[in-house]
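Internal tracking record. Fields below are filled automatically when a chain is submitted to the structure queue. Please do not edit lines marked as system-generated. If the sequence contains nonstandard residues, flag them in the REMARKS field before resubmitting.
Queue: standard
Priority: normal
Entity type: single polypeptide chain
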Amino acid sequence: MRTLVRTALATFAADQITKLLVVHGLNLEQALVYPVWPPWLEFRMAWNDGINFGLLSSSHEFARWLLIALALGISGWIWLWAARERKNPRVQIFSGLLIGGAMGNVVDRLIYGAVADFLNMSVPGINNPFSFNVADVAIFLGALGLVIFSGRDKTPVTRRKS
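SYSTEM-GENERATED OUTPUT FOLLOWS
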């Protein structure tokens, strides 16, 4: 479980440090857009009070606390699942990514009431209106990795022939 904890802490720290540097350090809250390598990468401020890409966005305080509880519940469930697969380092790493990212977004909801999203990637001719953050990337990669790599170390059950 050390791998999970270290990965979660590193992910959480990377998320929170990038938010401090970009959102507050570059004063993105006021500037709203900071071109880094347009159109491929821009820092574009977005406060997300819903789920990824603003889904289920709501200004209701109930939704904020519901999403916090949901993130904590899923993180707890992933922790218990990873505890059963202690010998699978991939599960530990991907669980750490997911939990660290979720905790980064939970802290945002607690402090700001919404998640600070600032990464925006587009391609020439196609403007992506959505922003995301390091935590969102970690959650996506963690979930994808768990789907792909969990349970791979188990021997398949074979049927006995009669």
